[in-house]
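In this supplementary section we document a worked example of the pipeline. Step one takes a protein sequence of length 370 as its only input; no multiple sequence alignment statistics are reported here. Step two produces a three-dimensional model, which step three serialises into structure tokens for compact storage. The input and output of this example are shown verbatim.
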Amino acid sequence: MAEAGSIATTVAWWGFGLGLIFGFFANKTNFCTMGAVSDVVNIGDWGRMRAWFLAMAIAMIGTNILSYNETIDLAKTIYTTQRLPWLAHLVGGMIFGVGMTLASGCGNKTLVRVGGGNLKAVIVFIYMAYAARLTMGGVFAPFKGVLQHPAVTVQFEKSQTLPFLLGGMFGMEPHTAELVFALVIGGILLAFSLLNRDFWASKDNFIGGLVVGVIVVAGWYVTGKIGFAEDPDTLKVVVLGTNSQLAESMSFIAPSAYTVDFWAMWTDSATVITWGIATVFGVGIGSFFYAGMTNAFRWEHFISSQDMFRHIIGAVLMGFGGITAMGCTIGQGVTGLSTLSVGSFITLAGIIAGSAVFMKYEYWKMMQEA
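The serialised model returned by step three reads:
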């Protein structure tokens, strides 16, 4: 029991440390996925979008190298199951995309802003986390259940990842196909990002994408390798220190809900800090360190009741959409995508489409009122 507890604690501390680095550099480089979509839609600037693509590429290649070397087992994640609730991924992703636009940023950006003194982000975090919890097993759960109904779910024989589904077409066994697909898709994303002169106009784009991608790979190693052990209670080999008892990496919607649970059950001796909760604390504190070191810490607040209402609605939509789609712009858009999960690709498309279309709608509405 002591050994298992020690492993779980180690996993959590690693989560906190990687979260610190994530928050510090996300603040420093202004790494923002909602901002990336906004830049493309509104001014045609692909700099921050290429940074996001760079993070995807590094995470994808690094993660599948770990899998190919049998350092981690990607079959033991929430992303690579046989079940593909495609409608939940698509609609949940679109709802999340609209939500992050209303709330001025996704889950990780909310935590970064909390660390920088943004009181609006504090409200967004609370409502987002609570909405996520209600979607897991509360009053929002039935709506999630409709989108995850078996009638709109595809059941595969083994796994929903691209290597399992398409590898046979090229005469490759799945394990080899994982690495080949990762190198091809990741290579295309790398080329799109790095072989663009404008991308290098801001080195922060390169640093932000590099750090986020490497941290996602490190997260898989920590949970999938260090945390992989026998549960003393069930005698099953699981991942210790994570809420799912599966390998996890960076994601911020469900962990935010678990963080609220942790606060609510603070005096319960059975309550422990998991990988996900530790990363939430780490990102906020890492951002705070950067803001303090650079004198960038600023108290910010809502400018009107309408502004507050807009952010609360966005936060609720992010909480519901993120749980329904099983991830956010980082949880699905980088971490999930690194497993080559079809569901992650669908969610990413939904998030970008939802955000981009809503931005266009708001611009059209503004022009009509002018």
